Amino acid sequence: IKYVQSVVKGSCTILLLTTDGLIAARDKLGRLPVVVGKNGEGSCVSMESFACQKLGYTPCYNLGPGEIVKVTVDGVEQLAAPGEKMKICAFLWTYYGYPNSNYEGRNVEVMRCRNGEIMAKAEMENGTMPDVDYVAGIPDSGVPHAIGYANESPAAKPRDINKVKYID
């Protein structure tokens, strides 16, 4: 596994089923997450924290970049420690991550809302803020961006309702 991690250019997450458990390995730069979940009956491994929850497991451990673990009924045994460098795919938070997923401890919807706020603040600072009456997110993954943008945009601020916020 360490050899594969050293020669593959790009992301290579590995999951091997053995006779006594699973061996899970995150790619050397941690581009995509690997999560271990637990419940009273055992463990699971997934790339999405919400998948563990949907199957009745509680996400309990995120592998670090290049980390290799063995997951058995007795628990998680580290076979190779995580590396120092991390280049997680920011596109997870921006577009294709599931709304209820968490990557490196940060919820997707919260990050999208903050991205919208940052965009609006930058436009105000640069004097390029458009005169808008309404902000909408399209496709659905853009809705939190739109909420964050509208909350920071002076023209698009809700007038009769409280600001919409995502809570960490």
Strand-and-helix sequence, N→C? Answer: HEEEEHEEEHEEHH
Sheet with most strands: strand arrangement: 1-2-6-7
What is the radius of gyration computed over CA atoms, rounded to a whole number of angstroms?
20 Å
Helical amount: 25-40%
Q: How much is the average pLDDT? A: 86
Instruction: Estimate the global geometry from the Cα principal axes.
Output: elongated
Structural class: alpha+beta
Question: The biggest beta sheet, please?
Answer: 4 strands, antiparallel
Structure write-up:
The structure is a single chain. The chain is of the alpha+beta class and 168 residues long. The protein is built from 5 helices and 9 strands. The chain has helices at 2-7, 49-54, 91-96, 108-126, 143-152; strands at residues 14-18, 21-25, 35-39, 42-46, 58-62, 68-72, 75-80, 102-103, 106-107. Strands 1-2-6-7 form a 4-stranded antiparallel sheet, with no helix packed on it. A hairpin with a 2-residue loop joins strand 8 and strand 9. The chain is elongated. The two termini are 36 Å apart. The model has no long low-confidence stretch (mean pLDDT 86).
Summarize the structure.
The protein is an alpha+beta fold and 168 residues long. The chain has helices at residues 2-7, 49-54, 91-96, 108-126, 143-152; strands at 14-18, 21-25, 35-39, 42-46, 58-62, 68-72, 75-80, 102-103, 106-107.
Which properties best describe this structure?
168 residues, alpha+beta, 4-stranded antiparallel beta sheet, 3-stranded antiparallel beta sheet, 9 strands
